[in-house]
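In the laboratory, one determines a bound structure by crystallizing the protein with its ligand and collecting diffraction data. In a computational setting the workflow is compressed into a single prediction: the sequence and the ligand go in, and a structural description comes out. We illustrate the idea with uridine-5'-diphosphate.
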Amino acid sequence: MKIVVTGGLGFIGSHTVVELQNEGFKVIIVDNLSNSKIEVLNQITSITGIKPQFEQFDLLDKERVNTLFNNNKIAGIIHFAASKAVGESVEKPLLYYQNNLGSLLNVLDAMLATKQDHLIFSSSCTVYGQADQMPITENAPRKDAESPYGNTKKIAEDILLDTTNAYKYNAIALRYFNPIGAHPSAKIGELPIGIPQNLIPYVTQTAAGIRKELAVFGADYPTPDGTAIRDYIHVVDLAKAHIVALKRLIEKKNKTNLEFFNIGTGKGSSVLDVIKAFENSTKKKLNYKIVARREGDITEAYADTTLANTELGWKAEKSLENALYDAWQWQLKQ
Ligand code: UDP
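The predicted complex, in structure-token form:
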């Protein structure tokens, strides 16, 4: 029995494949290499000692998706594959709706046609927008998305709601907070294309001298130090949440056909907290300056992780310092 991991050569996907293989699962990676590198396959093999099966194709290719499901005994699907650049999604919304929703529909069609069950879906805390209360529980209302990318996550959740309801298959949507860090081996990590849009790759590239200085987007937020607050979670902790969720479905421990879990640390950190923690853990000084807010950014988001802790029996173990240290070691290897 195999686990299909779509987008398995990407940032979160590759770390999840490592954890799956460490737990004894056989993995089939499906990835079109649109935002990942084939070298990651060798790195996964080097960390785990096992080369996962790799299928290079686009999930919009319905024939290929159907063939994959027809030709393999599949025990579960972890669906990561998606375009994820928020800014690009504003410029090219059609591409984002096509890629992110079209691929999900093809996977669901093939799953249901072959009577497969057990889907883990990558959702995001962006579905909450600026939540009214912190920490954010799974019951917090979902808000209008700030970008087509965010909207694809929201619509994907709706697709899961309607289809699990109609076809009675089982799925878990994990709502990630801010995934950061890299594997402690420094063999896999985040590979941003061009100028990083996310905070941590920008921080590590600045410390490495690739970027001159970090722009801190806004110090006039209603937070203790004026900078925006997020819940940064180590990617290895996040990867492990997928294994626990998958086992929950395989062992039929889920309480409803579709369940949602927040996956974060439960701790909010400001941009200045991140800079301090980076300097502490790496002993590197970071050049930064405060600039205007970035459009579309919210003030704060951090998770109430009670449900994940009690129901999934999962808890983030690694600290912010630890994640930043691992991100830095990864940067040094680039
Ligand atoms: N941020 C920043 N400078 C950057 C990139 C990000 O100050 O170059 C801030 C951003 O405004 C937000 C936080 O860092 O408050 C996390 O941003 P990121 O894009 O990593 O994740 P988001 O939560 O926006 O998805």
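The longest strand covers residues 74-79. Keep in mind that any predicted model is a hypothesis to be tested, not a measurement.
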